[in-house]
Design goal:
Structural class: alpha/beta
Bound molecules: ligand T4K
Radius of gyration: 21 Å
CATH superfamily of the largest domain: Type I PLP-dependent aspartate aminotransferase-like (Major domain)
Strand content: 15-25%
CATH class of the largest domain: Alpha Beta
Helix content: 25-40%
Number of domains: 2
Number of strands: 16
Distance between the termini: 16 Å
CATH architecture of the largest domain: 3-Layer(aba) Sandwich
Order of helices and strands: EHHEHEHEEHEEEEEHEEHHEEHEHEH
Length: 369
């Protein structure tokens, strides 16, 4: 049986890649802001309809750098329901994460619970558009404005998502997107910060290049976060095909909806018609009246060579570096704790065939037990 993974990366054709590789090989410019880096940054800004983009080697380094760029210190309010990189970026900056529970529907940080967590040490909110589903951006901005906090979005999952005003990535002080192999848009490894103005982009560009402004001037203890020419060239080719890739994801996603919406005990997350989605993930919630428990289902699917994933279980707050923080207690995070025990992300990628999708659906419905 062919294994079916939660995702399979979209690849550019080798034929399209060949001339770009030859060009890089002949120029011998491999990194440090070369031609392909510049082209990809410009192409991304145009595609997203945003002013400024700064490319990174991955989104984790981009998150760490974004916090540095905004000079965030003290305490930052964040969600427990994410990939560990979100909270790790705070610890890498010596910042104390303060965990606030998520909203039942969006699975994103619940704005109604944030104010109670603000202290004199709070400097920012680090929110996540989990599974590419938008946070309540208006409510979060209102809280940030009222309390003078910075607002940063971990938008690792949100490439291509738009609301009525355009790309979701334009919200907040900075947004960080991931181009990891498992993402909707990939450069093998990669990421970017979306910046609202030239000055922020300049500071971020210095920070990702060791703090260098020119050959003899270093203005900050920067890091090496640069995207190289090969990643950038791949990004240019991937961007050309991203519309088709998202449409294919949409078809797979719609078929799951059709097949699974009436399965007893399985709850699907609702699509918001006001949002242009990217169909990055297909999470299902396994409820009490399903024919088996979530972990049993996970193992059952595995036996059919279907490798679904329990994103995001275990919760970040259960790991040793976080569990001593008082806001990490499960009693403070009842919704996140419950959802982490219920969720399963099904295989979803552009090339998932209907035959393979049927295999997932059939195993989910308990066939072959
Ligand atoms: N913030 C959020 C909210 C994030 O979700 C992430 C990353 C970040 C920040 C940090 O972004 P980066 O620094 O990575 O740019 C994966 C990814 O490694 C990670 O990027 C991602 N989130 C997270 C949600 O998922 P794993 O542990 O699930 O990866 P892995 O290797 O088990 O891959 C899952 C499946 O995908 C495999 O079973 C097979 C398939 N696959 C994977 C890779 C890497 C392939 O077919 N080809 C591949 O090259 O973490």
């Amino acid at each position: 049986m062919t294994p079916l993974y939660v995702t399979r990366p979209q690849l550019p054709s080798l034929e399209d890649l060949q001339p770009l590789l030859e060009d890089i090989w002949s120029s011998r410019v491999l990194t440090n802001g070369g031609k392909y880096h510049q082209r990809f940054e410009a192409a991304l800004a145009e595609h997203l309809g945003v002013q400024h983009v700064s490319l990174f080697t991955n989104a984790t380094i981009a998150l760490v750098t974004a916090l540095q760029a905004l000079r965030i210190t003290g305490e930052v309010i964040t969600t427990p329901y994410s990939f560990v990189a979100t909270a790790h970026s705070l610890l890498w900056n010596g910042i104390r994460p303060i965990f606030v529970d998520i909203d039942e529907q969006s699975l994103n940080i619940d704005p109604a619970k944030i104010e109670a967590a603000i202290t004199p040490q709070t400097t920012a909110i680090l929110a996540v558009h989990c599974y590419g589903r938008p946070c309540n951006v208006e409510a979060l901005q209102k809280i940030a404005d009222t309390y003078g906090l910075k607002l940063i979005y971990d938008a690792a999952h949100a490439f291509g998502v738009c609301d009525a005003g355009g790309s979701l990535l334009r919200h907040g002080d900075l947004s960080i997107v991931s181009f990891h192999a498992t993402k909707v848009m990939n450069t093998f490894e990669g990421g970017a910060i979306i910046c609202p103005d030239r000055k922020s982009k300049e500071r971020i560009d210095h920070l990702k290049n060791f703090g260098f402004v020119d050959e003899v001037t270093v203005v900050a203890p920067g890091i090496n976060g640069k995207m190289n020419e090969l990643q950038s060239a791949i990004g240019i080719l991937q961007l050309d095909k991203i519309g088709d890739a998202i449409s294919a994801r949409q078809r797979v996603s719609a078929r799951y909806r059709e097949e699974l919406s009436t399965v007893p005990g399985l709850r699907l997350l609702e699509d918001d018609p006001a949002i242009t989605a990217n169909y990055a993930y297909f999470p299902v919630l396994v409820e009490r009246d399903f024919w088996c428990g979530r972990d049993e289902l996970y193992e059952h699917l595995k036996r059919s060579a279907v490798f679904a994933r329990r994103y995001f279980f275990p919760l970040i707050t259960t790991f040793p570096m976080y569990r001593g923080i008082s806001s990490a207690a499960s009693s403070n995070l009842p919704v996140a704790t419950r959802k982490a025990d219920q969720i399963l992300c099904l295989p979803l990628y552009p090339e998932l065939s209907t035959i393979d999708q049927d295999r997932v659906v059939s195993a989910l419905k308990g066939r072959g037990k």
